[in-house]
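tool=predict chain=A
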Amino acid sequence: MFRLFRVTVIGLLLGLALILVFINFNSVKERITDLISDFNRLPESFSLDNLLGGFEDSDQTIINDNGYTMKVMDDFSELVYFHEPSNSKSVNELCSTAKACINSGYFLESNYHAGLLTINGTKYVAIAPNDKQVTHVVKYKDGVLSFMPNSSYIYDVTSDFEFQAGPLILDNGLVRTDLINEAPNGNQSSFRSFIGLTKDGKVFIGISTKAVDLKTLAEELKTKLGEGLFAVNLDGGSSTSIYFEGSSLSSFGTSKILPNILMFK
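tool=predict ok
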């Protein structure tokens, strides 16, 4: 009789424990969803169950898949390089009138640009010709974006902007393992930001919000965007940030205050 009573009590206690676990789990799940909703980052179809598997944004041109967010930018008329070491505004504030923004060049502890920077013919920082990280110059002139190795750079006063970034990770579809291996952070796993050109010359931008090395990133870009790509690594890590107009779900890190931002208008 006592054994039966003890088994019954133990059964009731285990049942109660399972109920409490279930209630707490759902309570936590609901709370997390509420917190995310507070930041307006959830569409009506969102559920925590599909968070890790990727999601669709209302902007169907944005690719969101397995920690990668990217978009081919075929709807902008102007590309602006913002550089302000004393900037106190968030990415979200600065980009309120832009179609898209992404963090851009590396910067020093003082917030001044690391490596070459020219804007509208004014040279702010000279080129670092032998730097193994910022191996290329990103140039924008007359509506055309291009990449060139540091050794080929010639100062062009008529450019909209020129800045060093890198390393180059894709060169007409070829993964530049040589440059990646020589770069200080090339084989490290980190959040990433990048800019590139498709086979037909369209600009694309994106980020990885899971830590990856640059070889992995390059292969992922080929898988998602096709062959014949050119792509340059930007300042990622804690600087990783991307903004899309009207797409708060796909935007990331927009509360950050950064001295260097590329703005698509």
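The CA atoms of residues 89 and 191 lie 22 Å apart. The longest strand covers residues 203-212.
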